TrEMBL record:
Listed GO biological process terms: proteolysis
Family stated for the protein in its record: Belongs to the peptidase U62 family.
GO molecular function (one): metallopeptidase activity
Annotated ranges, domain Metalloprotease TldD/E central: 122-224
Annotated ranges, domain Metalloprotease TldD/E N-terminal: 25-89
Pfam family, one: PmbA_TldD_1st
Domain of life (superkingdom): Bacteria
Name of this chain's protein: TldD/PmbA family protein
Metalloprotease TldD/E C-terminal domain mapped to chain residues: 232-446
Single GO cellular component term: cytosol
């Protein structure tokens, strides 16, 4: 479905809601298609293809609102949807902060940048199968790999349009290509598994299947015969593979909706220095071909590059309309909108900027520590900042990375961890949130 068709459908739904008594409304329409092929031990295991169109409506009656969605874009289907949304809104609880973005804050559709998010390359199921087989073959060729959980290749396309009764109407499209392999090294009680995944907007930006498969195999083989780390308060180095999770926790705590609910450990620290002076966190939603790039947010606000953290302090609290109104913050273009439900807040190409020292230089003075490249569980409390997760990785001894370790936990508090954070120079920008390797001294390491 063309973007203009999605815009027309969303505009018709908003007009229908207004006709049924809504004081204001917005609608988001989406069309998507995806296909993937997976193989295991060289044999075809699964072919999956999906296509869908969905439209969601949020209707306001005074300070009350309700949202509903449907995949029925017929005139009768949207008429019934609009009637139901307005009826639900009339009985919803009042919310003094919920509203549409004001007209003077909306992005100008005529001035939206070209972000090159949609790749026109098409891959047939046979080509996807060949790529899936190639990535698995590369992983299985690594010495020590004995079995496979499979390789897969996929591609998807999508388009989204947003229309509001305050005058906004625009859309954009995008694509994704991906490769994945998961293999097992060793046999019997020695078995260790690991994987590698990469995705990109354009096929040309994706590493080769050989590179991704080899990485998966090497990761699994490197885990063989793990030992246990020493227990105590030690330096912990988060490998670039997992370090972005710390930035994700930070972004979640910075999000204005979390602050408004006082569900963030930063609720009483908005003016505090959280990091050392050299830590810098930036965001660029307008990065060409960026994994999370977009010209406007889920409420029609223009997305712009921002500095999120500088000189040790948060510079921007990501907001949507409701949280900005509640906390007296500016609109930042971070609203995320599903087909139904109120807008949330999401990150768009957030990068923790690297330092100049290498990982080797950053760990050179560590007499005893751990390098974590695998995290297990969800033991993070964003209300208190308490952090405790299972981990695996490698031991650091006298400034050198030694053999594999597993079966241990790392614990601390995110406030203390951020204050102690140091970064290396190995940043790679292919996810929506990216970070180089991170060193945090004084974490509690305990064996299971």
């Amino acid at each position: 479905m063309l973007i203009q068709d999605l815009i027309d459908s969303a505009a018709a739904l908003v007009a229908t809601a207004r006709r049924h008594g809504a004081d204001g409304a917005d609608a988001v329409a989406r069309a998507s298609s995806a296909q993937s092929v997976s193989v295991r031990l060289g044999a075809l295991e699964d072919i999956d293809r999906s296509e869908g169109v969905e439209i969601g409506l949020r209707a306001f009656v005074g300070n009350r609102s309700a949202s509903v969605s449907t995949s029925d874009l017929s005139r009768a289907g949207m008429e019934e949807l609009a009637m139901r949304a307005v009826a639900m809104a009339r009985h919803a609880p009042e919310d003094e902060y919920a509203a549409l973005a004001p007209a003077d804050a909306l992005a100008n559709p005529a001035r939206m940048p070209a972000l090159d998010l949609a790749d026109r390359a098409e891959l047939s199921p046979a080509q996807l199968r060949d790529r899936a087989a190639e990535v698995e073959d590369a992983a299985r060729a690594v010495a020590g790999v004995r079995n496979s959980e499979g390789g897969s290749a996929g591609m998807s396309r999508g388009a989204v349009a947003l229309v509001t009764s305050t005058g906004f109407a625009a859309g954009y499209e995008g694509s994704h290509h991906s490769l994945h392999a998961s293999v097992i090294a060793g046999e019997g009680a020695r078995m260790q598994r690991d994987h590698a995944l990469r995705s990109a907007r354009h096929l040309a930006d994706l590493p080769t299947a050989q590179e991704i498969g080899t990485l998966a195999g090497e990761r699994a083989a490197r885990r063989l015969d793990p030992g246990s780390p020493p227990a105590g308060r030690l330096p912990v180095v988060f490998d670039a593979r997992v370090s972005a999770s710390l930035v994700s926790h930070l972004f979640g705590a910075m999000a204005a909706p979390s602050l408004a609910r006082r569900a963030s450990f930063l609720a009483d620290r908005r003016d505090a220095a959280l990091f050392s002076d050299g830590i810098r966190l930036v965001e660029d939603p307008l990065r060409p071909r960026g994994p999370a790039s977009r010209p406007f947010d889920g409420e029609g606000i223009a997305c712009v590059p921002r500095v999120l953290v500088e000189h040790g302090r948060v510079q921007c609290w990501p907001s949507n309309v409701a949280s900005a109104a509640q906390l007296g913050l500016p609109l930042t273009g971070h609203a995320a909108r599903g087909s139904a439900g109120a807008p949330s807040v999401s990150a768009t190409n957030v990068d923790l900027m690297p330092a100049e020292e290498t990982l080797a230089a950053m760990i050179a003075d560590i007499r005893e520590g751990v390098l974590v490249d695998y995290l297990i569980g969800q033991g993070v409390n964003l209300v208190t900042g308490d952090y405790s997760r299972g981990a695996a990785g490698r031991r650091i001894v006298d400034g050198q990375i030694e053999g594999p370790i597993a079966g241990f936990t790392i614990a601390g508090n995110l406030v203390d961890m951020f204050a102690a954070m140091r970064v290396a120079d190995d940043l790679e920008c292919w996810r929506s949130i990216n970070a180089p390797s991170i060193r945090v001294d004084g974490m509690t390491v305990a064996t299971a």
